[in-house]
Amino acid sequence: MSTTTDKSFIERLFQAGSHFGFKKRRRHPTVASYIYTTKDGNDIFDLEKTTVLLDKAKETLKEAGLHGKTVLFVGTKDEASRIVKDAAVKVEAPYVTNRWIGGMLTNFSEIKKRINRLATLMSEKESGELERKYTKKERVVIGREVDKLNFNFAGISTITKMPDYMLVIDPRHDSIAVAEGNEKKIPIIAIMGSDCDASKIAFPVMANDSLQTSVSLILGELVEAYSEGKSAYVPKAPETKRAPVRTR
Asked: What architecture is the 3-102+162-229 domain classified under in CATH?
């Protein structure tokens, strides 16, 4: 059943506080049509419209999973980072939850070098090669480098190409990620509050993006849709080249 016709889900959104927007003065003009009313100076989202948007986002993610598309999860603000990381790990998707490094998408060739450096150091550490090659003092310095690389790039260490989609929590907070995604023409799905610019998002889901209860509920729906698609994905068999026919 779609969430649009599921009145009990709207009630769950309400209980999670998903209807709460920010103060009216903070409202971005592009979200005006999704506001139901303003109460005590605070915008209130129309949750029926939110569920319609959520259904579109879920269908998009299900199709993405069904066709083996990569979705990059992004959520670096404190309220959402742990939730986003857990969700991404659950569906084996790449993620950025600590800090968005400028150029992650627009200068990916350089970022890939750092990812490769991390992979090399981790491999040498596991094999014991670091112990053999470097002094104790050098290993301390390398250890700090590994920690920094892990902090910044561990979540995208499996990426070999541009993601097909991005799933962002609070695009205003992670505006650099959104700008890079738009520059690379990557469709963006976003859980976004009333202070965000909807024109930069292909599939917006208008709801409170600060309350953990709200983010967890909506993100859980999105992840379930993506997971459903992935479970039905059948990779294409590699094409075999046919030997050329010789003519006499």
From this structure: 3-Layer(aba) Sandwich (3.40)
Residue pLDDT tens, the chain, 248 long = 455 556 799 999 999 999 999 999 999 999 999 999 999 999 999 999 999 999 999 999 999 999 999 999 999 999 999 999 999 999 999 999 999 999 999 999 999 999 999 999 999 888 888 888 888 899 899 999 999 999 999 999 999 899 999 999 999 999 999 999 999 999 999 999 999 999 999 999 999 999 999 999 999 999 999 999 999 987 876 665 665 666 55
Distance CA 93, CA 39 (A): 39
Comparing CA positions, the residue from 234, 182, 200, 219 lying closest to residue 58 is: 219
Count other Cβ atoms within 10 Å, centred on residue 132.
Answer: 8
